[in-house]
């Protein structure tokens, strides 16, 4: 018994006050709500009383329920950093029934039963299929050291159920059989077994008997998710403090669950288009001559690139908001010259402020009490790059406001975007802040136990708000390493310090798919691996994958040789160039995909299990994913491979490289020589492409190309357009084009509708029709015949961008 205790109760004191707590074992006393006693109805919510707990159940929408439990009858102020303050509640109508054994709360799609005997919950759909069911249900354990409780919910599970999302977790895409922890950690050189990692997204999606749902545990305390690891018939999630507060979101389509979750925690703003271009980074490019040479190399070698990142060595002694004047004597001039050549400059800003009495940022922070303090009031001191530092309390709105103001100098120097790092927060030696560090938490004072997981997000928020303050009508761009649910309102993310190995190429694929299923589509990995040196083949395969990741950046630690594309043999360089060019050619499609994410929360990447949950074979696959709604990507992740096995879900698919048509729901072996990664376009799609460019606004194309993949039924594809950099689209200056393909098996047509006031400068569309059976007798564009050519089984012709109807006559 004594032995067992030692195993289950582990505390690893790092230094005074800083404990890494593990979940305490089952031998500790568990407390339960007891029997249901009474209830009280209110308009949108009801309170249900048990012997020892109260449940507040709110109807957020017909398919979204919110559960809050209190053990003493009092609820905390219902504040959350995750929920979008702009979120508007949906239809909150419900029907209520008090039956002998249970209470039934009914919306138009859900039936929620609360059982009287033990206060457990069961949620069914309107066909009485069980979606989620409590096992032990809500219970708690006392948190003896810090006060409060460890609050736990245990649901029924089975090895057949699938679990996805949960942020940046590594390992298998399906989380069933694993236990995961959310406590943002600087995990340099992490691997498939590492947990926790950088980000804290306490949202998972579940698939049970074909029914998709999601649970968002809205707690910023350290949280845990046990997906059938401890007991395969149970799923538990718990928080080491605060109250049990979670949202249940029903699909049944998983994509709808992710969209609803994204709406709840906030949509991403539209980024400037250049942020979707290719980024080049290293720790660190300096001095100025190196940066200029880097830029020249991109242009002279004709490798498209929009952004150059400056890592910590641009600063004076790692003091944030300063420049090293020897290395960068005239940053404004350098940035403006780079800009003329089509490059945007991004700089890194970390949270640690150097303790230096002559440094204004330090002085202001001390003077206004913006820095985090320990429990007795002393400022918390921790060492990072600059040596001993203090750290702003980003949960204090005044400190955020101050921080935002600090960007005025960098923005006036011409800096276009900011990269926030080390914001887990990371501290050398100790790992992070001690638990007793105090936080403002928006007027809900607390210790670091509650603020740790939101610290990075609030830093990114303050940074984003700073850029917004000084960017005028231009859009802002930030990147963050740490994140909490809702980070997408403020920032893009990257997956941190990965390694130059084939395994990490796979990890990057999983992480980006998982992040996209967690409301965070604007994500990418350090291409080529941050630590170590990839060979030409690995780098090429990574570039190929990242061409289809919304954030596309090569970054490396710099200790292990350089990772600019031209560091690799010409054979690789030409393929790398070709793929970066393809990224730019696909920009209209990618930009539209972003807009669909920003507007509707539609994930930009979709694992095929997410997009095709009813095709059960997809549930066993994890490398194939949809990029946007129309292109299926299957990266090559094995060294030396020239072909690979992959699965195509239901539907008809056209090989992007060969135009070969494959009927889906089939496993195939597809050619994948080094210069190709398997790409398939869904039939019925219209993929809009532009000419290759060296950067997003190098020139205005005269025509865009519509690659029409002939439909077999009626299909609609969207194209979104605006100026790509200003906020004029918010005032109506955008256009949505809809391309509608129709066929009855004999006749075929493509029509276009347009909505909005933005007029892109191009005048015409070059149409390339793929996978069209036969040759039309004539093609009529708005009733006028046009000349067309037939080339390699494709039909090509040009139309005005204002066309409304194209008819193919057979
Ligand atoms: C951290 C970051 C890495 C950066 C380095 C120096 O390790 O994750 O991207 O290059 O710090 O700033």
TrEMBL record:
Annotated Gene3D superfamilies: Glycosidases, glycosyl hydrolase (family 31), Golgi alpha-mannosidase II
Gene Ontology MF: a single term: hydrolase activity, hydrolyzing O-glycosyl compounds
Keywords annotated in UniProt: Glycosidase, Hydrolase
One of the protein's GO biological processes: carbohydrate metabolic process
InterPro entries: DUF5110 (IPR033403), Gal_mutarotase_sf_dom (IPR011013), GH (IPR017853), Glyco_hydro_31_AS (IPR030458), Glyco_hydro_31_C (IPR048395), Glyco_hydro_31_N_dom (IPR025887), Glyco_hydro_31_TIM (IPR000322), Glyco_hydro_b (IPR013780)
Glycoside hydrolase family 31 TIM barrel domain segment(s): 269-592
Protein name: Glycoside hydrolase family 31 protein
Organism: Fulvivirga lutea
